[in-house]
């Protein structure tokens, strides 16, 4: 099942992209591997070439650049808390990273990998045998969505825990590709299509995650799941208010992409929450029912606003 | 000791149903007693004294008048001197149980364990989430042959019970198990497991080996209703379906609230 033809270890981003072009038909970048390898075992990831980027030193730095903090994509989730500026100004990001998986996985999983975490669905994250027996769903080249009982689009849920917090703090990402590097807002890479949830080109690599400094962020993060560790999210919410009064609410786990509403301190909070709930497309592909997760969005957001003193 | 050689160990039904300490324990005790008999016969023959004079105590084999006084090793030497390795076996067959009335054959056992549990829970009124804060309990296992192992069994049993009552379930789609792995089948993690306070109640069971009974499945029973009752005590809703899901708790809380409202209107 796991016959790899190539396992390559480039030492720079340029080299990685070059190798990727050479193996363009069937390759996959590998960082922490906590997502890719599991998907490989289940037959959801079938590339013949793994490009291990963990040796690329330039992706492992956290640095301040003017009004921005740059977090290297290969920083491990467990290592975020060791950085002074992060623990001082972005404590909620550290809390969110700490809510991912279990201690052992956090020592391997990277922040870049977490924002690119593959969407999940109870009918997709199954063994090859299981998916064949049930009848392949849309996300694995079938013709119908099983979770919704026959819809023609895929609603696999977006499960990153760090991305909602990052987006709520107006994070940007620096992407390296064949045609050089560019900086885009993090939310712009998510398409909302469960089958292809990100619009990055296949050879693209995230170099840095860039957070604005000096905006006086106050953030509140919450996560819904049956157990207090290990589980993927059933609903993640992050609310951030900056010192200019801008409110950004993000919900994950309730749509193929993060659901985002931007408002202002003077806006009616209930209206903003209502708008966000309306934006989500929740289906029964989780341990919790659709209705319950929908109801919890406003419960969580209201609690967050209480914490933030709004 | 040979554990599984059908030439010398008789066929047993198996290691399940919390029967091992009781059944295998009694059989091992019987085997040890048979070995003791062989030893007495060997030494009595060599020293020419009556078999009922022998005392086994403090790793020694001796007679009251001390005409025989051997260390355990010396006694073994005499036993094996003329015959080589000695093998004995023992057995336990439970006494005839039940009666001739209808249903008399159901759930029979030569002895029964007893268990009780107290749980402390916190219920989130907005999300319906139930958090277990503490579990206390006591289990009557007869004589605790190895108290540390009994404590471990109790903690294991209650942890398992907490899984059954809080998160573990199997969901199916067209006959296929959906949560067929330990990511989706939710066994409580260490963070979901509250402090567990165990108490061993020692009674001497007339039938068990040295009075021992069991500490396994019997211990699980009490923790499930204890947690459901704790939820009732906290927020006044009766759980009738396991596992206790947040959404069910929330639904029941709302139904209760609705009933209260209509009751108020009627007054």
Description of the molecule:
- The complex is a heterodimer of chains A (310) and B (267).
- With 310 residues, chain A is of the alpha+beta class.
- Chain A has 10 helices and 12 strands.
- Helices cover 26% and strands 22% of the residues of chain A.
- Chain A has a 5-stranded antiparallel beta sheet. Chain A has a 4-stranded antiparallel beta sheet with strand order 9-10-11-12, with helices on both faces. Chain A has a 3-stranded parallel beta sheet with strand order 1-3-2, with helices on one face.
- In chain A, helix 9 (269-279) runs antiparallel to helix 10.
- Chain B is 36% helix and 17% strand.
- The longest helix of chain B is centred in the first third of the chain and has 28 residues, at 20-47.
Largest interface: A-B, 26 and 20 residues
Number of helical runs of chain B? 6
Beta-strand share of residues of chain B: 15-25%
First-to-last CA distance of chain B: 76 Å
Secondary-structure map with pairings?
The complex is a heterodimer of chains A (310) and B (267).
Chain A: E1 6-8, H1 13-22, E2 27-30, H2 36-41, E3 49-52, E4 62-65, E5 68-72, H3 84-89, H4 91-98, H5 103-106, H6 111-115, H7 128-134, H8 162-168, E6 172-177, E7 180-185, E8 205-212, E9 218-224, E10 235-241, E11 246-252, E12 259-264, H9 269-279, H10 290-307
Parallel strand pairs in A: 1-3, 2-3
Antiparallel strand pairs in A: 4-5, 5-8, 6-7, 6-8, 9-10, 10-11, 11-12
Helix pairs in contact in A: 9-10
Chain B: H1 20-47, E1 54-57, E2 60-63, E3 69-71, H2 72-81, E4 114-123, E5 130-142, H3 147-166, E6 172-173, E7 176-177, E8 196-202, H4 217-220, H5 223-235, H6 246-266
Parallel strand pairs in B: 5-8
Antiparallel strand pairs in B: 1-2, 2-3, 4-5, 6-7
Helix pairs in contact in B: 1-2, 3-5
């Amino acid at each position: 099942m796991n016959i790899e033809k190539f396992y390559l270890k480039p030492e720079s981003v340029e080299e990685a992209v070059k190798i990727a072009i050479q193996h363009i038909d069937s390759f996959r970048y590998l960082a922490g591997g906590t997502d890719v390898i599991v998907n490989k075992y289940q037959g959801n990831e079938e590339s013949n070439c793994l490009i291990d980027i963990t040796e690329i030193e330039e992706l492992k730095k956290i640095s301040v650049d003017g009004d921005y903090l740059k977090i290297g994509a290969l920083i491990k989730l467990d290592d975020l808390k060791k950085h002074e500026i992060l623990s001082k100004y972005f404590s909620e990001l550290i809390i969110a990273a700490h809510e991912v998986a279990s201690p052992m996985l956090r020592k391997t999983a990277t922040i870049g990998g977490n924002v690119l975490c593959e969407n999940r669905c109870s009918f997709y994250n199954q063994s090859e045998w299981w998916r064949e027996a049930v009848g392949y769903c849309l996300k694995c080249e079938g013709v119908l969505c099983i979770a919704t009982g026959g819809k023609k689009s895929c609603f696999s849920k977006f499960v990153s825990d760090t991305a909602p917090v990052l987006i709520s703090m107006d994070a940007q990402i620096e992407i390296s590709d064949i045609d050089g590097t560019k900086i885009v807002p993090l939310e712009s890479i998510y398409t909302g299509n469960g089958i292809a949830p990100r619009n990055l080109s296949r050879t693209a690599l995230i170099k840095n995650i860039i957070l604005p400094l000096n905006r006086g962020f106050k953030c509140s993060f919450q996560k819904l799941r049956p157990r207090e560790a290990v589980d993927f999210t059933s609903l993640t919410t992050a609310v951030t208010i900056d010192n200019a009064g801008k409110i950004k609410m993000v919900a994950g786990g309730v749509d193929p992409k993060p659901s985002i509403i931007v408002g202002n301190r003077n806006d009616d909070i209930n209206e903003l929450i209502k708008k966000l709930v309306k934006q989500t497309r929740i289906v029964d592909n989780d341990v919790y029912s659709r209705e319950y997760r929908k109801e919890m969005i406003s419960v969580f957001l209201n609690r967050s606003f209480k914490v933030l003193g709004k | 000791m040979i554990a599984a050689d059908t030439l010398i160990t008789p066929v047993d039904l198996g290691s399940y149903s919390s029967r091992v300490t009781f059944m295998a324990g009694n059989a091992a005790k019987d085997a040890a007693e048979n070995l003791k008999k062989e030893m007495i016969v060997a030494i009595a023959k060599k020293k020419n004294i009556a078999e009922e004079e022998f005392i086994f105590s403090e790793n020694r084999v001796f007679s009251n008048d001390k005409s025989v006084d051997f260390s355990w090793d010396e006694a073994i030497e005499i036993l094996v001197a003329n015959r080589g390795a000695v093998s004995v076996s023992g057995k336990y067959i439970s006494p005839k149980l039940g009666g001739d009335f209808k249903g008399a054959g159901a759930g029979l056992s030569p002895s029964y364990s007893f268990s009780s549990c107290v749980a402390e829970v916190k219920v989130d009124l907005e999300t319906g989430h139930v958090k277990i804060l503490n579990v206390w309990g006591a289990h009557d296992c007869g004589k605790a042959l190895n108290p540390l192992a009994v404590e471990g069994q109790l903690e294991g049993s209650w942890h398992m019970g907490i899984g059954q009552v809080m998160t573990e379930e199997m969901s199916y789609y067209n006959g296929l198990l959906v949560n067929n792995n330990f990511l989706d089948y939710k066994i409580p993690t260490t963070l979901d497991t509250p402090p567990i306070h165990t108490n061993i109640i020692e009674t001497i069971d007339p039938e068990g080996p040295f009075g021992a009974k069991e500490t396994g499945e019997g211990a699980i029973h009490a923790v499930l209703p204890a947690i459901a009752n704790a939820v009732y005590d906290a927020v006044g809703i009766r759980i009738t379906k396991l596992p206790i899901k947040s959404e069910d708790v929330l639904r029941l809380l709302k139904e209760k609230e609705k009933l209260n409202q209509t009751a108020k209107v009627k007054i």
